[in-house]
Amino acid sequence: MTFAVLRALHALIGDALDDVERIYAESGNSSPNSRTSTSGKPSTASTARSPTHKSSNSAQGHAYASPPPSPLISSYFQGQPSSQDRSTTPLSTLDFPSLDLPFDPNSPSENLTSHPVVISAVNKIVAAAGQMSATVQIPFLTLCDAGMSFHLPSCLRLLEASHTVEILREAGPNGLHVKLIAEKNGVDKNKLAHILRLLATHHILREVSPNVFANNRLSSILDTRKPSENLMRNPETKYSDTNGVSAFFGMCTDELFKSAGFLTETYFLSPQKHKNGREPTRAPFNHAFGCEGVGFFGWLEGEGINGKQVNGPGRGVDLIPGVVIPGNGSVNHKRGTSSIGKADMYSGKSSPTNKPRDPLANPNRFRLERFGKAMTGTASWEVPGAVLNGFDWQSLPKGSVIVDVGGGIGSTSMLLAHAYSDGRDISPDEDVPGLKFIIQDREVVVDMGEKAWKDKCPELVDSGVARFQVHDFFLPQPVKNAAVFLLRVVLHDWPDAFAQRILLRLREAAMPDTKLLIADFVLPLACADNFGSTEDEGEMGMTEIQGAETMLAPAPLLPNLGKASANGYWMDMTMQCMFNGQERTLREIVSLAHSAGWKVTKVTKAPGSLFGHIVAIPIEIPIQRRARAGSGSAFFDIPNSNYMGGSAVDPHDEALLDVREMGRASSRCGTPTFGSRMDLPSYEEARAKFGGGIRGALRRPSTSVLTRPPMKPSILPAAGSAKKKRPSPLSVVPQSPSPVPRNISSPRPPPPPVPHSPLKRRISHAQLNQIYSSQQPSLSPAPHQPSQSPRIPGSSLPLSRRASLANLSNQTSISKGPPPPLPANFLLRSSDRASPALSQMPLSPASPVFSRLNSPGLSLRSPTPASPNLSHRRSYVTLSPSAIPKKRVDNSVRSIGGLPSTLGGRGNTLMRSLELSGLANRGVDGQGRMGPLKFGDELSLDPASDDGNDTESIEESLPGGSVLAAAARIESLRNTPSRKPSMSALNRQYSS
Ligand SMILES: C[S@@+](CC[C@H](N)C(=O)[O-])C[C@H]1O[C@@H](n2cnc3c(N)ncnc32)[C@H](O)[C@@H]1O
């Protein structure tokens, strides 16, 4: 059986390689401008069709993973464009980018890695290869890999911090002897050789001859393209004017890496009263850096350091952790107050102090600035234009108000404003929904956003299409007429209790037809998901969620695509380690939303991405029922508290849920947070990326938005342009429309063609169009059907990075229940299957093929059970077994079957804490913010009032932000005729 699985994985890899080669071959043949190969040799695509086929490359017997560097690559090292060379190289096909050559974001070959078929195939290869390796390797050695691979980030950090990548770029394709590298960066040559060799062994760098190292496709993405000498002199300038990738890996291998080392200290070895807590300022990060009570962002801003130094005295380079100080050749590794290495952070509590007044005196200044840049480097975590497909924006009534809650500088709103507004307050055009945007954030961020919008698109601000508003999302939501509340990468920053409070605030302010749109990673389980199978999940409507996936890949692959989906899980742990936050599974998102009065109805993910757009509608907030333990301790059933699980709760736990943590956890001075967009998308970039998705203004030459400056050379370089700004190598997005044509019944004409230079080296929109349309007949066997959502903007395949892509979702997510046994014909190759095209093509949920696959006739999903009557009362008794306090006597509590055993009572702790904090704290400060609360505070509810009608009677006595208060408020709003104030009225209201 194991051999059968291995053979199946092998065949999967072979099929996937065939797919990739076919796309490259077709592209090479169909596009005269892209007849090139980064290897300088013809591809073997036409001959290599079997996983066992020996390609001519491997037959050459050289030491390279792929053909040796061609003379073409010398242009990289000289910093010169190589388009001329390429365009005159007559080759029959494109080759896949070589591992041995530096990354070239402008090469057609690299561009094609974002082709959906390639993304899908690569995901299969990565998943299958990872699984094969885990299967065949001696377990001890595989665990050695897992247990000792901490050396990888450690060595990677040195590579980045010592500017070795830049030194190697300057050395050229033949590399540089480690002795000479050491002379330049001051690291001991013998130590350096071993460090670089470890990296080369993991394919990050190449050892071209003994002790001689050169950059390769992986290491080169760390290249800031700056002269190494300058960096040695002014290392603090390293990340300015870069794409942020080196900053991102600098941060990952420094504070994130170190924090992760304290996971067990925090979650297991800490005193009982702390370890189950979810305070944002008592995370592994706080252990690692000895700064309990200080949020990561506050710490970055210099808080909690108590006047001592974190990284050494003085300013400038002295502040940079681990860099060589020029002149004396020494390396600064003073750690100041860090408790790394100390066993127990609780022995000596640090108290937060105000951050230094002088930002230059902030010992963490370098890290702070690096974080900002790093967030730019992660732009490709999400396909930015996916928000256009994540909701049926066109279906909204004219002039609808979208509230971008925690919206940062408004980059998502800006995309939407370009797509769905024509830059006028009221558009005469019936087709233009003329959406209005209110972007809410903290004051300092709002200031930044207003400035950015005024610089970039003043007409949208002046016309009233968009406006910023200072608002703390833990306080009552001031906008009462929102059509959509948008929460993009906000909830993942917060533990459940805090996230629930944010959602409650929105629920309180929601009209019956208000929608909630959550944009966050949606983590799949590592087994086939059976969500919706329990009664309570049925009550939460899980079985009816459109686009929900139960698995991303067929057996024998892991249902979540294993290694190919790793990035979502890295992010999850990063949020835990830094903030006690988390990414969430769909089940967790649904339950969290439900507990705050929102019912999830739809999930949309861009092909190959775990990043989802989740639509929810308002429902009644489940009112928790009071329960009393025999001992007299008060604790409560928490609505839907089964969703998180974790360890059992000690009802006498004195852990505080101090809601002032909210403030401490948040950035004070506008530091971005994980996932925030640091740049406004340019109109042209958005247009180039999302084509038909950008509607409204784009087709109206007379409107003001078209008076924007012409397309920037950095986006679509002019012919012969010598200097190009390198886009983020992780965010190369081919300018492509959907490969699956949709019959969109829009009266709108298509948007004007994207102007592009005929000489530019990137594959043009039109070229990819051609590629896709040439594949059309075989890729889409289904007859064209009208789109479910006729106004969904055109490009359903915003293509992006390849990391963490899990784009088998739509073809493989349709079976429910345990993974099927290995089919007898499993070894059949894709070409033998009934519908090879379907199996090869990642589908957009908007595609007719996808709808067809999900149609009742074809779906393998078990039929949706009749929706049970929603009875919120039942859900109060759904505590997971492990979360039931020992003293509990409430025999209505029952266990939840089907939940993974790893889900215990952690969520209950949080939810309980929230409830207690909400109910027990009568004191609300002047700003409506709730004060710190003790677990076990007295409830004001009379047990007898547990009849479902208690909301009105208790409204007055409840602090804002609690479940009950929100429910009560909604109840009272229900009796108030809903008004829809005009935008100008709203503006007046807010400005007063
Ligand atoms: C990860 S960022 C997301 C920003 C934006 N939605 C985006 O997609 O780029 C989280 C945002 O939440 C904001 N934030 C944090 N605490 C807040 C609070 N209490 N009230 C309002 N916004 C807050 C931060 O300033 C930050 O802009």
Commentary on this structure:
- This protein has 992 residues and is an alpha/beta fold.
- Among the domains are: 2-113 and 121-144, no CATH class; 381-645 and 871-974, Rossmann fold, CATH 3.40.50.
- Helix content is 34%, strand content 7%.
- The chain contains 37 helices and 17 strands.
- Strand 14 and strand 15 (634-636) form a beta hairpin.
- Helix 10 crosses helix 11 (189-201), helix 13 (245-260) packs across helix 18 (365-377) and helix 23 packs parallel to helix 36 (963-974).
- The structure holds S-adenosylmethionine.
- S-adenosylmethionine (SAM) binds at residues 406-408, 411-412, 441-442, 445, 472-474, 488-490, 493, 662, 666-667, 673-677.
Brief summary of the model shown:
The chain is α/β, with parallel strands linked by helices and 992 residues long. The protein contains 37 helices and 17 strands.
Features:
992 residues; alpha/beta; Rossmann fold; eight-stranded mixed beta sheet; three-stranded antiparallel beta sheet; globular; binds S-adenosylmethionine; O-methyltransferase
